[in-house]
Design brief:
The protein is an alpha/beta fold. Helices cover 36% and strands 14% of the residues. It has 15 helices and eleven strands. The chain has helices at 22-32, 43-46, 68-80, 92-95, 100-106, 131-137, 156-181, 191-198, 200-207, 245-254, 272-283, 288-294, 308-313, 315-319, 356-362; strands at 13-17, 36-41, 59-62, 83-86, 111-116, 185-190, 227-231, 237-241, 302-304, 323-326, 329-332. The strands form three sheets. It has a six-stranded parallel beta sheet with strand order 3-2-1-4-5-6, with helices on both faces. The longest helix is centred in the middle third of the chain and has 26 residues, at 156-181.
Length: 373
């Protein structure tokens, strides 16, 4: 998009049909890795779009996909693309005349990435939904939160973990196949599938009888004393995840509980409530800052629970440039990191249609006259 564009996907062309949530997240990641991502905005949605981090790094054209000439212009871009990503309900792209059969018919090597909540098939595939619905249906939400009720894990698990990340992985895997064989394909990425895959280890524990289907009843969902969050004297929190025996001993030593016989059985769930209460009483004697300093040189798998603003300022984050200033906004740096072909933020989100003429000219595609707004 700019002279800063670089990364392992340099030279890869992507058409992104403007959507919400996981599809734009995929577009951001592809752009951060160097792809030339062009977003097709629709006129009736242009004024609703907020400028922000999620849609950074791509150029925008504005096309009315119900107009024959503007739809033809979109097909012109698709014909030149390596990857297409869309986040509409099943059947919408087909009704617009931009479905996989049409797109692959004009571009047989195209990777056609489809992002939905429920998938392209199944009894509830056409129904509406949002992140929390898919997390709920996957079995994940039931296991997250306090014993009294499930708690939403932001939209990290559905939109971005089970959705956008899996779409990104899928289209890049299909791109490798397309370049090896000359054969494009459709990538059906759904949040319900992705979240279920994220839950693979938990479903494995369920099948083996090692997991109890309750909140705060397993080592990793708030029951164990060694994998928990504790309130400090100043109202802030700290977290331990001292699963391995050596880390567990280090945690107990740092808390002054290393010689307490109560903590000899690490994995006896019957004594976990008493162990948690004992640790909580100790943690409440100091502030978060005091505990952070106390455990600074420890291997107890300890962390202060930081706010987002605090995370941006943390020395470790600063040392790694985990947040970068771009467009007067401190934002997460591209990830993952590449030693030979580092990615970069290719620029801020562009207003809808801001790059109309430049995109059609650089991709050598005819621009419909009525699209010049």
């Amino acid at each position: 998009m700019t002279s800063e564009s670089q990364g392992p996907l340099l030279g890869v062309r992507v058409v992104e049909l403007a959507a919400q949530g996981p599809a734009p997240f995929c577009g951001m990641m592809l752009s951060d890795m160097g792809a030339d991502v062009v977003r097709i905005d629709r006129p009736n949605a242009a004024m609703q779009r907020e400028l922000g981090i999620l849609e950074r790094g791509r150029r925008s054209v504005m096309l009315d996909l119900k107009s024959p000439s503007e739809r033809q212009a979109a097909l012109g871009l698709i014909a030149k693309a390596d990857i297409l990503i869309e986040g509409y309900r099943p059947g919408v792209m087909e009704r617009l005349g931009l479905g996989p059969d049409v797109a692959l018919g004009i571009n047989p090597t195209l990777v056609y990435g489809r992002m939905t909540g429920w998938g392209q098939s199944g009894p509830i595939a056409p129904k509406g939904g949002h992140d929390l619905n898919y997390v709920a249906m996957s079995g994940a939400l039931h296991m997250i939160g306090p014993k009294e009720r499930p708690m939403s894990p932001l939209n990290l698990v559905g939109d971005y973990g089970g959705g956008g990340t899996f779409l990104t992985m899928g289209v890049l895997a299909a791109l490798v196949h397309a370049r090896r064989t000359g054969q494009g394909q459709v990538v059906d990425a759904s949040m319900i599938d992705g979240i279920s895959t994220l839950m693979a280890a938990n479903y494995g524990s369920l099948a083996s009888g090692r997991l109890v289907e309750e909140r705060e009843a397993n080592g990793l969902n708030g029951s164990s004393p060694w994998g928990n969050v504790y309130r400090c004297s100043d109202g802030h929190f700290i977290a331990f995840q001292a699963y391995e025996p050596q880390f567990y001993r280090e945690m107990l030593s740092g808390l002054g509980l290393g010689d307490d016989p109560l903590f000899e059985p690490q994995h006896d769930a019957a004594v976990w409530p008493e162990q948690r209460a004992r640790i909580a009483a100790v943690v409440e004697t100091r502030s978060r800052a005091e505990w952070t300093e106390h455990f600074a040189d420890s291997d107890a798998c300890f962390s202060p629970v930081l706010t987002m603003s605090e995370a941006q300022r943390h020395p470790h984050m600063r040392a790694r440039d985990a947040f970068q200033l771009s467009d007067d906004m401190l934002q997460p740096a591209p990830a993952p990191r590449f030693s030979a072909t580092p990615g970069a933020i290719a620029g801020p989100q562009r207003p809808a249609g801001a790059d109309q003429q430049e995109v059609f000219r650089s991709w050598n595609v005819a621009e419909p006259k009525e699209a010049v707004r």
